[in-house]
Design a protein that fits this description.
0% strand, 196 residues, globular, mainly alpha
Length: 196
C-alpha cells in the first residue's frame, strides 16, 4: 500500500496537464515548481484547475483506499499514516520525473480530506482566508500547514496519523524555504501574476 501510494503520488499533474493543454513545461518558468499555482502563471486557467484537482485527488484516493481496506487487510492507523506520507513524498520527489516535484499543497489537502472531510475543510478555509487577505499562495500554504496538526489534534487527539500530518507540515514548510525568503525580501509573486 505504501509503495503504491508513493507511485500514485509520483504522477505530476502539472507536467501531464501542461502537455495535454499544449503549454510550456511548468518547470521552465515562474517559480519552476510543477504545481497548480505556477501553471496558473501560464495564463491557462483550465490547466491550472485540472492540475489542482489531479494533485488533490491522488492524495485523497491513496488515503481513502488505505482507510477503506485497512480492516480487511488487518492493518490499522499506522498503515494509513504511512500511505499518507508516501503519497505526499511521491509528489515532492516523483520517481517518474527525476525526483523533481511540486511543493505538495494540493496533495496535502487531498490527504487531509481523505483522513477526514472536516479536517480538510478547516485547513482549506485557513488557506482561503490567508490567500484572499494577502494574495500569496505560499503564505497561505504555510499558515494552513501550521494549523493542520492543531485541527487534527482537536478533532482526534494524538495518534499515528497526527504524526503523519506533522511530518507533511514540516516537509511542506521545507519545500517553501525559498518562498519564505522571497516573502521576507518582498519578492514573492502574488496569485495570478503572469510569467515573465
Amino acid at each position: 500500500m505504501t509503495v503504491a501510494a508513493y507511485l500514485l503520488g509520483s504522477i505530476s499533474f502539472a507536467v501531464v496537464m501542461s502537455k495535454m493543454f499544449g503549454i510550456a513545461d511548468p518547470r521552465t518558468y515562474g517559480s519552476k515548481n510543477p504545481g497548480a499555482t505556477n501553471v496558473l502563471r501560464s495564463g491557462n486557467k483550465g490547466a491550472a484547475i485540472m492540475t489542482l484537482l489531479g494533485d488533490g485527488a491522488k492524495g485523497w484516493l491513496a488515503v481513502f483506499l488505505a482507510d477503506h481496506f485497512a480492516a480487511q487487510l488487518g492493518v490499522g492507523d499506522t498503515a494509513v499514516a504511512l500511505v499518507a506520507i508516501a503519497v505526499f513524498l511521491g509528489h515532492l520527489w516523483p520517481v517518474f520525473f527525476r525526483f523533481i516535484g511540486g511543493k505538495g499543497v494540493a496533495t496535502a489537502l487531498g490527504v487531509l480530506l481523505g483522513i477526514n472531510p472536516w479536517l480538510g475543510l478547516a485547513t482549506l478555509a485557513t488557506w482561503l482566508v490567508i490567500a484572499y487577505a494577502f494574495r500569496y499562495s505560499s503564505l497561505a500554504a504555510l499558515v494552513a500547514a501550521l494549523f493542520a496538526p492543531f485541527y487534527y489534534g482537536l478533532l482526534f487527539g494524538v495518534d499515528a496519523i497526527l504524526l503523519a500530518v506533522i511530518v507533511m507540515s514540516v516537509l511542506l514548510a521545507y519545500r517553501h524555504s525559498q518562498n519564505i525568503a522571497n516573502l521576507l525580501a518582498g519578492k514573492e509573486s502574488k496569485i495570478g501574476s503572469k510569467k515573465k
